[in-house]
Design goal:
The chain is of the alpha/beta class and 306 residues long. It has a domain at 5-93: NAD(P)-binding Rossmann-like Domain (Rossmann fold), CATH 3.40.50. It has 14 helices and six strands. It has helices at 5-18, 34-38, 72-84, 100-117, 121-131, 137-144, 146-156, 169-175, 200-212, 222-243, 249-259, 269-276, 278-292, 302-305, and strands at 25-27, 47-52, 61-66, 88-93, 188-190, 196-198. A four-stranded mixed beta sheet has the order 1-2-3-4. Strand 5 (188-190) and strand 6 form a beta hairpin. Helix 5 (121-131) crosses helix 10 (222-243) and helix 8 (169-175) crosses helix 9 (200-212). The longest helix is centred in the C-terminal third of the chain and has 22 residues, at 222-243.
Length: 306
């Protein structure tokens, strides 16, 4: 099932009618409101999220998402089930994107900001791969399919603040039918062997989106790219902890290392933040807020550094 709430509700109503009493109902949804799915059934206490990470046969992380009515024994069974699958189960609250995809959305959004300001996708990818990420964000987007994030942005359009900074070039790629590897064209062009090639068509679309906003592109150093990515992850971690979606600061590091190819040798963004210290981190986040523009929400670092 693709990420459509009404489709999920229909399927779980059908499962609810057929599954025996006491069966655990679990959704692999990445972003949708688990409580809304649970409310479509007669047994919301038995419904949870079990979010596997792609590729599921490789990535160890599995989010066990706690709904408003999820019963404790159901959650305990799900955590044990994850361990039996040799996964690393992580208990999260029910919120848009849960822990992992909330973090990744903040990471990807900051990377898109930097491309809008003057970097190219291949520079951002190369900088972050040199830092230690398994793949850069635009390579990942092409692999997973640009249309998935496009549908998510369309679903959020009605609730997006009119002044919130929004990057247009990702939508323009999709409007041009460039959905990534499955169409042999996304942020990169793919030859018959599947090898990625830098595509000047993409540069043209990005340049056009910049011009429409009156943005004069500037050069970004690789150090700035990595620093802004790390700060955006730390800031989102603080928000997740304040909202109770993540139970502990170290859950953020566990999620990124085991679900998103974050370099294990770097520990994780929370570890990185603790190494920097509160004063330096506060100044850095002031700078990140200026870079990010309207819509940026500053997190309270006391949650991360506690």
């Amino acid at each position: 099932m693709f990420e459509d709430l009404e489709v999920k509700k229909q399927v779980f109503r059908r499962i609810d009618a057929l599954a025996k009493s006491g069966a655990i109902l679990a959704s692999n949804t990445s972003y949708l409101d688990l409580d809304a799915i649970a409310d479509a059934t007669s047994r919301p206490a038995d419904l949870i999220g079990l979010h596997f990470f792609s590729p599921a046969n490789v990535m160890k992380l599995m989010e066990v998402v706690r709904g408003r009515a999820s019963a404790p024994d159901v959650l305990a069974t799900a955590l044990d089930f994850g361990r039996k699958l040799k996964k690393l189960p992580l208990l999260t609250g029910n919120a848009f994107g849960f822990v992992g995809n909330r973090l990744y959305a903040a990471y990807r959004r900051q990377c898109e900001f930097m491309v809008e300001e003057g970097a190219w996708p291949e520079q951002v990818d190369a900088a972050l791969e040199a830092f230690g990420f398994a793949m850069g964000p635009f390579t990942v987007a092409d692999l997973s399919g640009l249309d998935i994030a496009w549908r998510m942005r369309q679903a959020q359009a009605a609730t997006r603040g009119p002044s919130t900074r929004y990057v247009q070039f990702a939508d323009r790629l999709c409007e041009a039918g460039r959905f990534g590897r499955k169409t042999n064209a996304g942020y990169y062009r793919y030859d018959e062997s599947g090898k990625a090639q830098v595509d000047e068509t993409v540069h043209g679309l990005i340049a056009g989106a910049r011009a429409d906003k009156g943005i004069v592109p500037r050069a970004l150093a690789n150090d700035e790219i990595c620093r802004r990515v790390m700060l955006s992850l730390v800031n989102e971690a603080a928000l997740l902890l304040a909202e109770g979606v993540a139970g502990h600061a170290t859950d953020v590091d566990v999620a990124l290392v085991n679900g998103y190819g974050f370099p294990r040798s770097e520990g994780g963004p929370v570890f990185w933040a603790c190494e920097r210290g509160e004063v330096a981190l506060g100044a850095d986040l002031d700078w990140l807020a200026q870079c990010s523009g309207a819509g940026f929400v500053r997190g309270d670092m006391r949650h991360v550094l506690a």
